[in-house]
Amino acid sequence: MAKKLPLKQRYAALTRDVHWEPSYVDPEKVFPYTSFEGIKIHDWSKWEDPFRLTVDAYHKYQAEKDKRLYAVLDGFAQSQGHLTLSDARYLNAMKLFIQGVTPLEYAAHRHFAFLARYLNGAGPRFAALCQSIDELRHTQTEIHTLSAYNKYYPGFHNWNRMHDRVWYLSVPKSFFDDAISAGPFEFLIAISFSFEYLLTNLLFVPFMSGASFNGDLPSMTFGFSAQSDESRHMTLGLEAIKFLLEQDEGNVPIIQDWIDKWFWRGYRVAALVAAMTDYMLPKKFMSWKEAFELYFEEQMLGGLFPDLAFYGIKPPRHVEHAIGEKDILSHQVYWVLYQFSFAASFTTTVPEPYELDWLSSQYPDTFDRFYRPLWDKARKIQENGGRFFFKGLPQLCQTCQIPMAFTEPGDPTTICQRHTVYNGERFDFCSDGCQWVFEREPEKYVQAWMPVHQIYQGNCGGPSVPEVLAWYGIQEGDNGEYLGSVEHTNWQRWHATAPVGS
């Protein structure tokens, strides 16, 4: 009778032992992408799988989560669950989510599938395969969840087309285009470590808890379903960085450089999450400042980086600037979105008095002094029958592609503007961090697809706002002010016709 293998040996037999060394083809031709970044790997077998899952066990585990998610989706749809949301204004956050986050999930799926073919070691290849499937699953569940709202409210259509064209969506898109066009090891640090481990909790924990708080049980369910995968992805990121650091001392300065770059790139993308968290949830759950202090300062800076110091890794460059912005970041970003929502596929509104008071309590040192006066002015204009829009084109940061709205470190009253001259051309930046990222590899960022520049060059449908919006795929009623919008009208109409008790 055959002896039953111990669990660890059985796992190795089903995964590692199916790997073989090529004998009739040069290994460098089989795996051509892992040698040009300067990273040295001496023993791929030293990769430790954080989750010992076979393909069979992995799919059974994910299938159970899908069953629970789709049961929630069915129940929500059948019970007219969209009427139980806190307010239709909440849906604008989810429009930004499906336009800005869901396409990133699909991009991650594609590139992790690439790594599952081209990483030399059997362990990291299988880990990349599982993450690729995870990311595709996230894409599908997010589309299925949010498509229910598309039946009743505008702005959820054309999201993939918008991701490629709309100005504010160039921020997340440029981040992933940057990562995908890097080498395989830099991609692992950019996504698996800097994005997944350092920053993903800021989206999938506090914001998805806020979704539940606002009556959006489907989004909360897919968010927490994804977060259980993100935990595995974060563990993959930590294993990846420790594996690379332990393989060769020469890897340390290369990885430190990547951490410095990708922390700042990811942090600037998270600026959109800051605005969503503080301003786009009618019922507040946790402020951006609270989430940043808990998930980044305490858990990452206070917990992770002291461990990585053993390998010679230091906290990211410019991290002190990120900490210094936690009191002002969300206000600056949402003020930009409010001014330019005539060219966005969601609506914005002046915060209600109770929201202003909540923001005052969360940001006692900055909000009343610098930002409440802006909203008081906007409300007066609204009460007089107007609406404050900035009907022009803003200057963009060449690196992160966010309009130049951020302020000097320590001075919330002065716009921060840096510039570099490269090959006789001037390039402008919103911060020291973005300038440093550009100057580190300028040949890459001079090629950036800058939405404002493309409009001026006539590449976005035409010279007028209606022509640009048509090229974006934005329809009438998708954008502008919430009051009187299609979503506001539909919200009132659906509630007026709903059965008593709905």
TrEMBL record:
Pfam families, sorted: Phenol_Hydrox, YHS
InterPro entries xref list: Ferritin-like_SF, Phenol_Hydrox, RNR-like, YHS_dom
Stretches assigned to coiled coil: none
GO molecular function, one term: monooxygenase activity
Enzyme class label: oxidoreductase
Documented EC number(s): 1.14.13.227
Source domain of life: Bacteria
Domain YHS: 407-449
Keyword terms: Monooxygenase, Oxidoreductase
Protein name: propane 2-monooxygenase
Catalytic activity: propane + NADH + O2 + H(+) = propan-2-ol + NAD(+) + H2O
